[in-house]
Amino acid sequence: MRATVVVPVLKSRSRGGQSESASTRTPESRLEEATGLAQAIDLDVVNGSIVPVNDPRPATLLGTGKIEEIKALLDERDSGLVIVDHPLTPVQQRNLEKEWNAKVIDRTGLILEIFGRRASTKEGTLQVDLAHLNYQKGRLVRSWTHLERQRGGGGFMGGPGETQIEADRRLLQDRIIKLERELEQVVRTRQLHRAKRRKVPHPIVALVGYTNAGKSTLFNRITGAGVLAEDMLFATLDPTLRRMKLPHGRTVILSDTVGFISDLPTHLVAAFRATLEEVLEADLILHVRDMSDADNQAQSSDVMRILNDLGIDEAESAKRLIEVWNKIDRLEPEVHDTMVQKAAGASNVVAVSAVSGEGVDTLMDEISRRLSGVMTEATIRLPVDKLALLPWLYDHAIVDGREDNEDGSITLDLRLSETEATELERRIGNGPKPDKEDWER
Questions:
Q1: Measured between alpha carbons, how far is 246 from 96 in angstroms, rounded to an integer?
Q2: Alpha carbon of 103 to those of 76, 80, 83, 98, 109: distances in Å?
Q3: Residue 83 DSSP label
Q4: The pairing of beta strand 2-13 with beta strand 19-21
Q5: Residues 40-78: pLDDT tens digits?
Q6: Which of 44, 215, 327, 379 is most deeply buried (CB count within 10 A of its CB)?
Q7: How many angstroms separate the CA atoms of 389 and 279, rounded?
Q8: Measured between alpha carbons, how far is residue 18 from residues 13, 53, 96, 349 in Å?
């Protein structure tokens, strides 16, 4: 379908009386992003317009002159769809459709359409359906008044019975309640999965970031998984979890989450809460940023705002978050070198290229260091009846040395965190008590 993208740039009055933009993003970057969103669902974008709006109209958002100007463009380009990169009220959407004689969708509707196409699991489909129904609930129009039921009450003073629009709203609400119940089961299932993972306490590392920042490409680079990764907004939607081994042998679970975006519809945030809570459970969060994008600072602010809404405040994120400056392979050599040096001098930043693999080893070492905490050195002799602990040790500790003894026991030189050292003592303490030399510090 041939589509036209319209980006309204609203002005807000500052205290000094001067006009300033209501958005921190440049109009050009907003137009580029909106065009990318449209192309993500195979729309043929034939025109893109940036429209300054000094005085938003309650009925149409845009002024009369701009509406006529855009109508002429639609007729000229034979465009049957207009995407307005701004939230529209039901009244504004309906009036613009009448004026332009074309289908009109706003930013929320476009993102919902993309999510609807990307959802591949039952959970993803439920979440998108719920968000879509909540969005549609306020957009039913009175096109069915000829189907009003017979008047109620006595005489002709009684009001009309239930209209078709009221019946539609009731059916929508029934469907919403049904979906919410199904999603409650999803939440319970996820909680059970988390409880099982806690029993086998592999640390969880979650990838977050703006859409198209390269999270899935980095996920594939680290884990060798075959997750769909394309240069496209919202190429992946459903979360993916994989086990991976860090350089020193420790096993962790890496989680690839849905990409964030500015002005993420509240319907989607609410519907995807069960999925996004995977981030809350993570021991470490990798915030992947596309450093080749001129708007990466504004994108980073949007991601941090959503993390804050989820309950991860600035103080907590400082302890649990690593910034991954991705796509440095796209930068000019001088900019590339400067950015790598800047990242090397920061305590929570790693510069990488998920495509070429540059910096990925450094990132893996940093993940290992952050998850290790305060390391404890230990030498332990495992008797024959405790050799079942070997897989656990190789998963949770760094084995610096191993000696196989003649009596079948094994002596290991270990480095492990204080928490894991305590857990190892507990595991060794189960069953027959080992000799004193079995556990030496």
A1: 55
A2: 16, 6, 9, 9, 12
A3: E
A4: antiparallel
A5: 888 999 999 999 998 899 999 999 999 999 999 999 999
A6: 215
A7: 30
A8: 6, 15, 30, 38
